[in-house]
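This section describes the prediction task in plain terms. A model, or a person checking by hand, is given the sequence of a single protein chain and must write out its three-dimensional structure as a string of tokens. No templates, partner chains or ligands are provided. The sample shown here is typical of the held-out split.
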Amino acid sequence: MDKIIAIIAMALVTYGIRLGPFILFGGGKQTPEWVRTIGGVLPPAVMGMLIVYSLKHIEILKVSSSLPVLIAIAVTTVLHLWKRNNLLSILSGTAVYMFLVQRLF
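The expected answer:
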């Protein structure tokens, strides 16, 4: 019974979080400037955090651990600059990294 209550609580919170913006900004209300600013700044900030997180444990002198990461970052960067598609570049970089780690290094 505890599991069912936990699942219902999580579902209600998730639904409330997704419904919140429609309640706050729906009905023709103007979206506040700070929300638009955060919407423009947050995606690049998240990408920056992902890059820092990916590189924090790399030992540059160990080719077996640093080269796959650097190649995957290069693939991600080139694809993003070329196609400007976050999902494509992230998924491709991840696929390249996984291939390199599991098959070549």
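For orientation: Residues 2-25 form the longest helix (24 residues).
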